[in-house]
Specification:
This protein is an alpha+beta fold and 330 residues long. It has eleven helices and twelve strands.
Length: 330
């Protein structure tokens, strides 16, 4: 993993569908080099880009669940949860006696959800579910803890879409809300979020102009999001943790926004429960995690209590299984 690889990954975190040409301009290498390095990163299980339903276009409720279970049953239960389509970020924590996962439930179809299934699972000793009330998206809510982050000028160059496809003059008036006709498009993007417009048009039977305009609508309306999964250990980051924070209600928004802007943060959201702010962070070591909690989190006076839950190992990222610290499509 050298500087070029890290710069390519940083570009993808900013825009998962950025063209190799734009990434090459920022990384200072040829387009062919970017394409070759990207394919190697994929093959090595270091990075994966997927298109997933966003929070802006779904009626589903997002939950985080802490599952207490017998230590001898933890791995099997974590694998079972990771195999479900309605789960993500499945992690074994607390020395192997707890699983934390993100899940979705449809109020119109509650039966069969994780929340309905867990009470009937013999391996489960207990669980606590926290509904996500608001996701803080400050600074794009991207993990940016690189030694040499992209400069403002490089970010500006990356976001200059001079290679964007022109919109269809007969563009459909549909808004950025998912509907049944989007199913084939979502299926292709779930396999590979960087699938080209030409390939998407071939797979869906749509015109290239329709694919381009519909992608823009869904992304702009946050009905579709690009999840860039990373094998953090491959970048030298070995300390991931959930921080369950108790914050004064009147300071919840400003505190969540402040935390979301930290480079170490991968996710920040207001949730139900006495610990009303959930933050996930990824640091290089436990020493760095300690410094982060005592320094940056400790500086926020509205935080009155913190429950730090280190991740022992992750079984699933946003939509990608993790095996021995590497991403896998299996």
């Amino acid at each position: 993993m050298d500087q070029t690889d890290r710069r390519i990954v940083q570009c993808l975190l900013q825009d998962g569908r950025a063209s190799f040409r734009r990434i090459a301009q920022v990384a200072g290498v040829s387009e062919q080099t970017v394409a070759r390095r990207y394919r190697a990163l994929i093959a090595e299980g270091t990075v994966r880009v997927r298109g997933l339903p966003g929070h802006g276009g779904s009626r589903e409720q997002t939950w985080f669940v802490r599952v207490e279970c017998r230590p001898d049953a933890t791995d099997a239960l974590a694998d079972a949860l990771a195999a479900r389509e309605d789960t993500s970020y499945v992690s074994v924590t607390s020395g192997g006696s707890e699983i934390v996962c993100q899940t979705r439930s449809d109020p119109a179809r509650p039966h069969g959800s994780v929340l309905q299934s867990l009470p009937r699972t013999a391996k489960v000793l207990g669980f606590h579910a926290y509904a996500v009330l608001h996701i803080h998206l400050g600074a794009g809510a991207k993990w940016r803890a690189f030694d040499e982050p992209l400069t403002p000028a490089e970010l500006a160059a990356l976001h200059h879409h001079e290679d964007a496809t022109d919109l269809d003059p007969e563009r459909s008036p549909r808004t950025g809300t998912l509907n049944e006709t989007d199913a084939p498009l979502l299926a292709e993007l779930a396999r590979d979020g960087r699938t080209s417009v030409v390939e998407l048009a071939r797979a869906t039977g749509w015109s290239k102009a329709r694919v381009s305009s519909r992608l823009e609508e869904l992304l702009h309306g946050r009905a579709l999001r690009l999840a860039v999964d990373l094998a953090y250990a491959q970048f030298g980051f070995h300390a991931t943790a959930y921080l369950w924070l108790t914050v004064a209600p009147g300071q919840l928004t400003t505190t969540g926004e402040a935390l979301s802007r930290h480079p170490e943060t991968t996710f920040a959201a207001a949730v139900t429960g006495s610990a009303n702010l959930l933050v996930t962070v990824t640091c290089r070591s436990m020493d760095d995690l300690y410094a982060y909690v005592t320094g940056k989190v400790g500086a926020l006076l509205a935080v009155t209590q913190a429950d730090i839950v280190p991740v022992l190992h992750r079984v699933k990222q946003a939509g990608t299984r993790v095996h021995h610290g590497r991403l896998t499509t299996a």
